[in-house]
């Protein structure tokens, strides 16, 4: 009935040209819906970025702590080897 939204006849009130205000309202509503959906996605994206950053920093701290513990373990191993050598030298010195 309404091709091109033209007013065909006064007997068809729905076939009148859509007013400019209505088009603007619909356009604004559509834009608002898009923004709200994009806003939700942006919030989710921001939350994920923050969570990712927190996990990255936590992982980096764990790796730094791991490196420190490896260094301590290496020093303790060296100290243990030195003490074992001293103990063996004392055993052999008492035998002779």
TrEMBL record:
Upper lineage: Eukaryota, Viridiplantae, Streptophyta, Embryophyta, Tracheophyta
Protein name: Uncharacterized protein
Organism from which the protein derives: Coptis chinensis
Origin: domain of life: Eukaryota
